[in-house]
Structure formats: C-alpha cells, structure tokens
Design a protein that fits this description.
By secondary structure, the chain is α+β, with helices and mostly antiparallel strands. It folds into 4 domains: 259 residues, FAD/NAD(P)-binding domain; 139 residues, Elongation Factor Tu (Ef-tu), domain 3, CATH 2.40.30; 90 residues, tRNA uridine 5-carboxymethylaminomethyl modification enzyme MnmG/GidA (Arc Repressor Mutant, subunit A), CATH 1.10.10.1800; 58 residues, DNA polymerase, domain 1 (Orthogonal Bundle), CATH 1.10.150. Strands 1, 2, 6, 7, 8, 9 and 20 form a 7-stranded mixed sheet that branches. The chain has a 6-stranded antiparallel sheet with strand order 14-15-16-17-13-18, with no helix packed on it. The longest helix has 23 residues. The radius of gyration is 26 Å and the shape is globular. The termini are far apart. It binds flavin-adenine dinucleotide (FAD). The site of flavin-adenine dinucleotide has 40 residues, from helix 1, strand 2, strand 12 and helix 10. Flavin-adenine dinucleotide binds next to helix 1, strand 2, strand 12 and helix 10.
Amino acid sequence: MPYLEESYDIVVVGAGHAGCEAALACARLGLETIVFTVSIDSIALMPCNPNIGGSSKGHLVRELDALGGEMGKNIDKTFIQSKMLNESKGPAVHSLRAQADKQDYSREMRRTLENTGHLTIRQAEVSEILVEEGRIEGVKTFSGAVYHAKAVVLATGTYLRARCIYGDVSNPTGPNGLQAANHLTDSLVANGIEMFRFKTGTPARVDKRSIDFSKIAEQPGDEKIVPFSFSTDPQSVQKEQVSCWLTYTNAETHRIIRENIDRSPLFSGAIEGTGPRYCPSIEDKVVKFPDKERHQVFIEPEGLYTNEMYLSGMSSSLPEDVQYQMYRTVPGLEQVKIVRNAYAIEYDCINSLQLNPSLEFKKIKGLFSGGQFNGSSGYEEAAVQGFMAGVNAAMQVLGRDAFVLDRSQAYIGVLIDDLVTKENHEPYRMMTSRAEYRLLLRQDNADLRLREIGYEIGLVDEKDYHYVKEKEQLIEKEIQRVERTQVGANPKVQQFLETHGSTLLKTGTTLAELIRRPELDYFMLTEIDENRPVISEEVAEQVNISIKYEGYLRRQKQQVSQFKKMESKKLDQDFDYSKVGSLRKEAVQKLNQHKPASIGQASRISGVSPADISVLLVYLERIRREQ
Ligand SMILES: Cc1cc2nc3c(=O)[nH]c(=O)nc-3n(C[C@H](O)[C@H](O)[C@H](O)COP(=O)(O)OP(=O)(O)OC[C@H]3O[C@@H](n4cnc5c(N)ncnc54)[C@H](O)[C@@H]3O)c2cc1C
C-alpha cells in the first residue's frame, strides 16, 4: 500500500518547455493537473542557447501563440534583444528571434504556472508509469508515492539517464549539473516502449569582462521591435536592448582542434548518443568542412543579471585544456575566462514512430509525450509538441475529438508528421525547407491560420478571437478596395513611377496592378493613394503579401487541395497489409510497422514508393466496390 496516493485528471512529467505548455493547456481547460520536475528552480530552463525563435523556430512560436500557448507571451516579457531575421528575403522565411534573460524567462514561466488554477507543481522524480490492460493508470515517484490519472504526458527532455561529458570527464547529471532521472527508462522499456540514445552539446560560457570588444563586430537588435505574441501590444515592447557580437574561428583554432581530435569523446567513442546534424559541435564542423577557413561565432549575453556570455557556434566536448586553447585563438577571446565548460549531454528518448499524430502512444492508451523526449531538439520544437500532447490528453479526458494539424496548416503539423511518420535517428530540428507549403505557413499570418482553432479548443479568449475575425474582414475589405481603385496616367502618378524606376503608365490601371510590380509595394503607394483608410501595419502587411504573391499563393493552394485529397483517404490502423497480395514485401513490412492513419501519411513513409500507393489505392477501391 503506497504511503501517498492522489488522483488527478492529468499528470505531466517534466516542467521544461514541453511540460510547461502541456500543463498550462490542460489546467486552462479546467482539468486537475499535476506537473513534476526534478528541480522546481529549473522550470523552463534554457540549458543551451539564450534565445527563442530564429529561422522556422520563430514560426513555431507564433503558431503556438495563435493557438493559445504561453512561450510567445513569456519571451515578450523577458527578452533583452529582438531581431527579425531574413528580412532581405521573401516573407516565407522572415523569422523573429529574441535573446532572453534566461533567469527572467524561467522565473516568469514559474510565476505563470504557480498562478494558474487547477495546476499543482511537484518537485519529485517519476520512476514508473502504471499501465493496466494497455491503458495508462498513473505514475509512481522514486519516493514511492502514487499519482493516479486519466492521462499522462511525458516531457522528460534531456534528463533520462543523462550523462554530461567533456574530454574524459563524465558526470551522471542532467544539464547544468542538475539531478538526472535514472529510473523511468526501465519502466518504459518494461512496458514495451522502444528507446533511443541521443546527444546534444553546448558551448562554454565566458566572463564578459575578459572579452576584448574592440576586436569583434557589434550586432544590435532591431530599432522597431515586433512582439512574438499576437496578444502583446507592440508599443509595450519598444525598449532599450543589449547587443550580441560576431567573431570567427581561424586556421589556428582549427589546427588545435585537429591536433586534439583523438581526445574528443565524440571521436573516441566515449559518447554513444547520436547528435543533431544541423547543430554540429565545432569539432564536427572542422572535421566535416576541412576547406572552410573560418566559422561564425556569435557571442550572446545570457541575461542582464550576469556577465556570462554564450559562445554560439562553438559547442564542444573537447577536454578543458583544449577548450581554453581553442577559444583563446578567436579574435576578442584572447584573454577569455571560462565560467562554465562546454560539454555534451546524452540522454534517453523514444523512437517517435510509436506515436499517433495526436502524440499518443499507439500501444498505451492515455499516454502522450512531447519535446526532446520525442527525439526533437530545441525549445520551440519542444514547446509546440508539449502543447499538442497536452491538448490531446485533455481532449481524451473530456471525450472530445483528437486535435491534429496537417502539413498544410502549420509548421507544427509538419514537425509532428515528420516525427511520427519518418524514421529519425538523430535529434530532429525544424527548418523552413521541411515545410512544402511554406509560402502559406508564414510567421506573419499564424493568427489568421490558427486563432479560430485555438478558440474552438477553448484556449483563446473572446477578445483575441474577435480581434482576428475583425482583422480578416479589414484585410479582405482593403484588398477589394485596391483591386477596384483606378489610377490614371496623371503627372503625379507618372512622377511617382519615375522616382521608383517603374514603367510609366500608357493608360489607367488599378492600385493592385501597381502593387504587383516587383519594384513597388502597398506601403510605397501611400504617396498616390489619396483615399487610403487608416489601417494597422499588420493588416497592411497582409494586403501587400496577398497581392504581391497572389500567383505563388494560388499555386500553393492548388497543391494543398491535392495533398488534402490524399490525407482524407483514411486507413484502418489495425489493417494487415500482407492481405494486399501485389504489394512489395518491404512496403508490407513498413506499412504494418507504421500503421499509417491515411494514404497521405503512407506516401511519406520511407520505403513506401508511389507505385505501392497506387497498388493500395486500387485495392481499396476494389474493396469499396465489393461492399
Ligand atoms: C547541454 C544541452 C545542449 C543543448 N543544445 C541545443 C542546441 O544546440 N540546439 C537546440 O535546439 N537545443 C539544444 N538543447 C536542447 C534544448 O534544451 C531542449 O530542446 C529543450 O530544453 C527541450 O525541452 P523539453 O521540455 O523537451 O525538455 P527539458 O527542457 O529538458 O525539460 C525536461 C523536464 O523534465 C523534468 N524531468 C525529466 N525526467 C523527469 C522525471 N523522471 N521525473 C520528474 N521530472 C522529470 C526535468 O526536471 C525538466 O523539468 C540542448 C540541451 C542541453 C541540455
């Protein structure tokens, strides 16, 4: 008989970026929720890069915010620098990135969790999942207490059997020396869950006072700051910012690394976990790109409360003495003092093919998971999965339909579909190139795509919902106005066109036609658009993009309707594909292993060819006719 037994609707294991979103979503939907962490002082800890967002990750944060998640609001309250990346390129790759004050970020998220109704926070290590006849029943802590639940969300991040390594130093701890969680893996394996061993790494933190700033290039934030959250008043985030700095490695840095590569646990085999290809350590980069003369190093402040600076681009697990040698070859770091060594961390996570698109385990009903535990890497990737896993755990307890976003609706849909459909043998990191429909899935229109869905779930309030509905109407009204507003070939217009190097008009045209010219845009036409109504910048931005990229957007929408046709062809997830006689052996094996939810998902499984899909479609059509 356990000495302590409690019951909740939902148990969330982990208060990292995934666990926080899962716990808040469940509690805000009115369910009694308890969230566990091995250290309550590490809620929403940022153990690596001190920033939120960046290419494609900014899209994830904005989509999460539109749906009712917390990360966007939290960074708007705690950022110390903000930049819109890729502004010189098309809107599909514009992406917001903000430097965070790490301690403030964690403190602010803790304050939100501690002041959310229906939510209990508990510092304890969960050591077992309790399963009865294929359904989750609750969890047990290492101290022996039992917490019953109707659904459980696992978001254990980089803590399961974690080991931190640099040189021949190896510590069985979590990040930043926090306690590792060494007992849950055995229970997961005992319940038939397949585990992977992954690895990631972080650079050293150095003392700001030991940096020679005269030798490195300042990277200031944007003058005009754009908030992450659609609920944040843009005026409220205009503030003084700190700078980041840019320097480079050089031939001497690379020589030191090459001469000591045999002492790297990465190359000596001391690290067994698989690392992220798209977030390589500096030794990885030097070995893989021998002809590259230099690698960028961004020096980023960890916060306003400290002199610690983060050396982005130089994560490593080389021995301490080599770290000193290599960092001190970098311009500006000649006298550098290391505050925390660079290190690699390896940890247990799952093979995410065991999950349904709702992030529920196929084999254990009521058990969901999100974040690094699912084999991804990054705060943003973790947060959106935590949110989706939390919402789906809540939907199940509330007897509502599962909530799944497909690849044409959101980067979140791309991320989760890739995790549950494609074999990931290394930490998965989001990139814009992964999203086929990225011109439709821009960070600037995440609210127009997802706010209504967040409202229907119950995590977006009336005010935000009506705000976006009104915005939609204003955009549509303004597009119609510029489409029908005639512009004559009068001297003022001709002068304007000449000034902007645009072809003069022979006859009248419309404002929209002028906007479609590559050298002009909606904002520039203010000069000749006398009846322009007063509209917000965000509405103006949508009008400009909708008209300027009209052709591309239309083509992408056509591709999406093709895609949706394939997604709508649902498949029985208990079907035995060996019954389809003409299917290739490998396809039968892969389809029976994955049990895809639709023809669309089946077509994305590696090893299943378009020919196999045709065979399947013919077979399904024949079955349908025989019925
Ligand atoms: C050293 C290091 C380097 C990194 N480098 C990068 C990088 O370069 N690029 C990148 O994109 N990402 C990097 N990351 C990853 C990034 O930190 C994670 O992606 C992100 O923190 C994952 O969020 P999460 O919520 O899934 O897990 P985490 O933030 O790790 O949180 C896990 C939570 O689970 C709790 N927990 C775990 N097990 C138990 C248990 N059994 N019982 C109770 N509580 C438990 C922990 O206390 C914690 O609250 C790095 C992480 C580390 C540690």
